[in-house]
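TICKET: design request
STATUS: open
ATTACHED STRUCTURE:
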């Protein structure tokens, strides 16, 4: 429920995306511990697309999306502290120029040969700079219809990249957050447990 998410983010002076990342961080922690992976000091990073559209650009055609690579505090056992740490980290990253630098590369793609940007993307993938993609896309706040049939939910999909077992995409629609989980079955056959852990993490945040 999007209203419940907004209530949580308001109490913690965070963003909807911070709450999403906090739920993911808690679920990742549970998953790793369940598979006997030590989380203490683990450098676990997420690739997070973010909007760089200014207030003046709202309503304009085209996308203004950049990216952040943010560490998730999967070694932090306290859900409250995880959300606070994520909120602090994302705020610092947005002010650091990381998103602006990625946006500059996007702008360059309009002016240089596609082969150059393709080479950059291939190099970025080989650098293994992140472990997981988590994208949160704002959707329509009202219901839409097709041939008289109401769209009940819209579940987005993020593709899996090389050597990645899980991708998470979230879209808001008509008062709800719709979560799309895409996983490599051979690497993550217990995806259902991860999904349940995300639900449990949000319920924990609601009760804090």
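STATUS: resolved
RESOLUTION: sequence designed for all positions
ATTACHED SEQUENCE:
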């Amino acid at each position: 429920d999007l209203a419940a998410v907004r209530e949580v983010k308001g109490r913690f002076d965070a963003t909807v995306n911070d709450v999403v990342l906090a739920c993911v961080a808690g679920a990742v922690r549970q998953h790793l511990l369940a598979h006997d992976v030590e989380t203490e000091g683990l450098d676990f990073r997420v690739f997070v697309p973010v909007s760089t559209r200014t207030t003046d650009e709202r309503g304009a055609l085209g996308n203004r999306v950049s990216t952040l690579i943010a560490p998730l505090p999967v070694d932090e056992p306290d859900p409250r502290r995880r959300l606070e740490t994520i909120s602090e980290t994302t705020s610092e990253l947005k002010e650091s120029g990381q998103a602006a630098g990625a946006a500059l590369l996007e702008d360059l793609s309009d002016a240089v040969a596609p082969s150059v940007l393709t080479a950059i993307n291939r190099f970025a993938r080989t650098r293994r700079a992140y472990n997981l993609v988590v994208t949160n896309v704002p959707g329509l706040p009202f219901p839409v219809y097709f041939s008289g049939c109401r769209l009940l939910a819209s579940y987005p999909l993020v593709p899996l990249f090389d050597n990645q077992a899980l991708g998470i995409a979230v879209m808001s629609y008509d008062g709800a957050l719709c979560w799309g989980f895409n996983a490599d079955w051979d690497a993550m056959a217990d995806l259902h447990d991860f999904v349940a852990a995300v639900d449990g993490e949000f319920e924990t945040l609601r009760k804090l």
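CLOSING REMARK: The beta strands are 44-51, 65-72, 132-137, 145-146, 149-150, 166-173, 176-183. The helical segments are 2-11, 16-34, 79-96, 98-108, 114-126, 191-207.
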